[in-house]
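tool_call: predict_structure(chain=1)
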Amino acid sequence: MTAPDQPAPPLPPEAVQGRLARQRRWRERALLLAPALAFGSVILTIWALVAWYVVEQPRELLAQQRHELATGVRAVAMQTEPVLRQAESALRVVDLWLLTRRGDRPLADASLLQLADGVRSSSRQLVDVVLVSPTGKLRRLQAGVEDDGASIAGTPAFDQFAGVVPEGISLGLPLRLGGRRDDGRLRLPMLMRLSRPLDDYDLVMAVVDLRRLQEAQALFAPGPPASLVMLRSDGLALARRPDVPGFIGRNLFEQFPVARRELSGDEGFFASTGAASDGHPRMGAFVTLDDFGVKLLLSDTEDAALAAHRRQRTAVLVIAAAVTLGLAVLARWLGRLQRAARLRDAALQATSNAMPLGLFRTDETGRIVYVNDSYLRVHGLRREDVAWGWTTLVQPERRDMLIQRWKHHMATGEPIDMVRKMKRADDGRLRWISVRTAPLYFDGKVAGQAGTVEDVTERGEQEKARQTLTAIFDMTPDFICQAREQGEVTYLNPAARARLGMTADAPLDGAHIANYFSAEQLELYEQFVLPEAMRAGHWRGRASVQLGAARVPMDCLIIIHRDVRGRIETLSVILRDMSEQLRAQHERERSEAMLLAVAHTARAQFLVGDTDGRVIFFNAAFEEQRRVELKDWVGRPLAELFGAQDYAARAPLIAAALAGETSRLDIASAVERDGRSFDAQYAPLRVQSGQIEGVIGIEVDVTEARREEARLRLASQTDALTQALNRAGFEEGARRLLAAPAGQHLALLYLDLDKFKPVNDQHGHPTGDALLKAVALRLRHALRPGDLVARLGGDEFAVLLPQLHEAGDAATVADKLLHVLSTPYHIGELELEIGVSIGYAVATTGAADLEDLVASADASLYEAKRAGRGRWQGGELFAKV
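tool_result:
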């Protein structure tokens, strides 16, 4: 075992003063360096921002350029792909038209020319279609200019077509069509071999106006010096904007193998030295149009992104250098001003510490920002605790109130002049401290207060003690008497004088303690009470005191006061009238006895438990019902008393009662074999203060009442003739089954007996009633125990089938009932035959209500009867939308 931690011994005054001096020197050094540190931090921050601007900003600008290029090339791809798709579609449409066209001269057919005109107009003159012969001769599909001498013989695109297979499409190098109608523009050709050659033509070619396509693409590309390149998947350059002589037709993958790796994939980024184009290093983004074997490359130079930044960088560096120089000059000037201010503060501090009064100053919030050494000596505080240290010296229960008043005075400038008892921080002694303040104004506003503190304990304690003791004796309702050792009374407080009928200034000449005791009590006082009080210094007990004509029971306290030499000076006797308390105690005991008698004679079961769920009390009715005795169960758990099943039913009621709520519930006993029911009510057990000390439960046996209620309810819901449910009982049961968990199939069957009225008219009502009973009996035997059977009136019956496996089961049951009820009946000596018409509706719980189900079944019954009777009709009722 280790010894308990002992508080560290206090430091000697010299050590404390030395530590405070070191702290002051450190503060002075910190204040001296504060301007340099502050301006140094500002300069460091400025140059950190400059460094970020010089180093990190270019990276962000380049990253932003990459993002813009990626976005731009995707937009260009979305503009280019529809044009190529339209050119491809034009090739296939013309090929299909020529393949399916019959006749001697299909090329002279006006519909072919209209088809080509449609391609041109729908593409806004971007796409045109021509036929190509094996020699390169072109035939325009345009009225009046079919043969204008145009030819692509000798062009790279025509030469590359030798490897095109049927159904294949080849994208070639840009070319000019030539001929008399040629406008000299470059066009991007897309060639396909005709499925069926026609005359001298075995190729069809769609051409895209390259200049218009590039103008449309330029809307989504950055301005110069950005470039946009169309590259075939094998590396062949098809187009570049702006154009570079000799670029189109070069195979970049063969010339620069690394480009094949960089441009692999559907999209991405690449870097170029510019050797293949204009010689400027570039970075760019690309997108692949897989369906056409084309890659779109959008690139830009690094200078385009960083040109403005490089111009601004020089200006930022010059400004930062100028600001740094200015801050350095300002810091030096402020340092000189601070040194002069510290010299003045040191002189004022020395003067303040030499004063005998404690001086302090606060800000407008009430926080103390300055104290002299005398202030610290008065309160016993350390200098580091002065800000709000005084709040720890006042009484805790008054601390919040005093802080609020202090803050109010400091903020409003209202001066303070008061004497307050406070505890010293160093030794814990209580001292009377005089506090005076005056407001401190700055620029016309209250900036706090300045004040003084002084220890006035010695001259204030005696006066305060006298006033306090006098106030206590004058205000207390107890009777206070002071007497000498021999018993002569020297003082009676106002309450005692009033009880004896004496005026406040009546003399006490001749008054003696013996006047207020009987002979036996006086003997007891002299032989036992007084010696015990002198030995222990006090005595406490009960006594009967003669006050006027009455003897009053009193709670008595005797205190012995001794002088410095130990001799008895005074006896203080404090008496408290116990009449009302004894009377209240008697009334309480009588009430408890009455309540106990009522509880034991009541037929209801009473149970009381504590907050821990343990038995405090239960009455005779509870003992008889549970066959237990109270003496065996006091202090034992309620759960053990009731048993697991019965306690589980009551646990929520007990928990609610302990939470302050009164709850009521019908509970079926798990102990009684005949299924007894109890009306249980549990409420919180509150004491006079309102605190919950437990739970009280009252349980009444309501078994017979519940059985009578059930019998009456059954009678009100049963048809008297057939003992089946009547309409009210059927509707209640149907609504209960419809409220089952959603998704279960159920069916409602409406039955109307055929040929019942002739039987009733011919053989009389008794026979008709017997027949109805037989029908109800057959229905019950033919159905499941959980199915509902009801007689709705006359010869109408209803059946509700819950929990069907599938909707088709309802038709099976309807067919079964049709045959069961159509079998001849033997009523006495009569053999009777009737039929039945059935209409049914199937629904799903949670998707339909009873009214919709009844309407559907009734409509189905009507259809069955209209179709000839003796049959069933029905279907599934779908949920309302």
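agent: The chain has a mean pLDDT of 82. Proceeding to next step.
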